[in-house]
Design brief:
By secondary structure, this protein is α/β, with parallel strands linked by helices. The chain has helices at about 30-40, 60-75, 85-95, 120-130, 135-145, 150-155, 165-175, 180, 205-210, 230, 235-255, 275-285, and strands at about 15-20, 45, 80-85, 100-110, 190-195, 215-220. Helix 1 crosses helix 11, helix 2 (about 60-75) packs across helix 3 and helix 4 runs antiparallel to helix 7. It is globular, with a radius of gyration of 23 Å. The protein starts with 15 loop residues before the first strand and ends in a 9-residue tail after the last helix.
Length: about 290
């Protein structure tokens, strides 16, 4: 059916920037990029410093945020940024530093503050593994084989693994205030975790921080999924990503209150119960109300 001549033009879709996790690369998003392309949504997956096509560079948080800023600029200057694990922390920091670029945030598998008391132990373990002759390549291969299906493992590893980046990542993220960064901007926030993700321990604090900054916030827990939720449950995660992109577009075009999914379900209007029905009858002249 042809569009009416006087119909307003359809608004351009909000672009999406995808940010990978530690030691992997932009290729982990291949299925999501294909789905976004089919939906007509401009999208790009970023390679962070020290990862993918940028292996050999040192990882710094400033450099990672700068990479996101360049990719958002390339898509028009404002986008929904979605990141997993390391990518989620970088996306949170980007939104705090450059709120003018944020049409929304999907932060997946990153609901533990980066200054966790466990960080020194993680850092010691990362340095020990990176000191092995193969930098932990065999261990990583075993983990991937056990954790993912064939397609997920292929996407995760297609850009190569940054086996010596983890210690740098932990050092760079350690001093950051993740909750403070979440509260520093008001664009839409969706927090997405696998049901069995060990990084979801503080998800309620993350929701509270985002809402403290005025952001319409939604927490989504994907059944049966683990830490690598976009690879572990790709269909469910892709559906969530597409829904978040639609919600971000609605928020960009009008008041936040129009985006019901962003702030969680809108409470249904209460239907009169037996007690309220009885009270109304008692107030009618001559009405015979039943005891409440």
């Amino acid at each position: 059916m042809a569009a009416r001549p006087d119909a307003p033009p359809r608004p351009a879709p909000v672009p999406v920037v995808l940010v990978h996790g530690s030691r992997t690369s932009a290729t982990m998003w291949r299925r999501q990029l294909a789905a976004l392309e089919r939906a007509g949504v401009p999208a790009v997956a970023t390679d962070l410093p020290g990862h993918g096509t940028r292996r050999g560079e040192p990882f710094t948080l400033d450099g990672a945020v700068a990479a996101l800023r360049r990719d958002v600029d390339a898509l028009g200057g404002r986008a929904l940024v979605a990141g997993l694990s390391l990518g989620g922390y970088v996306a949170i920091e980007h939104r705090a530093r450059h709120p003018e670029q944020s049409a929304g945030l999907v932060a997946a598998a990153c609901c533990t503050v980066s200054s966790s008391s466990l960080r020194p132990a993680w850092l010691s373990l990362a340095r020990w593994i990176e000191g092995w002759p193969d930098h932990g390549a065999r261990l990583n291969e075993t983990f991937v084989r056990l954790a993912l299906d064939v397609d997920g493992a292929r996407d995760l590893g297609a850009g190569g693994y940054a086996l010596t980046a983890m210690a740098q990542v932990l050092q760079e993220l350690g001093p950051t205030d993740t909750l403070g960064a979440l509260a520093a901007a008001s664009s839409l926030v969706w927090l997405v975790n696998g049901r069995y993700d060990h990084f979801r321990a503080q998800e309620r604090a993350f929701v509270a921080a985002a809402r403290a900054g005025g952001a319409p916030t939604r927490l989504v827990v994907v059944p049966h999924a683990r830490h690598l939720v976009s690879l572990d449950a790709p269909v469910a995660f892709t559906r969530i990503l597409l829904e978040a992109q639609v919600a971000a577009g609605a928020a960009e075009r009008g008041p936040i209150r129009a985006v019901r999914t962003g702030a969680g379900p809108t409470p249904a209007r209460r239907r009169p119960g037996r007690r309220s029905w009885a009270r109304r009858r008692r107030r009618r002249p001559g009405g015979r109300g039943r005891p409440g």
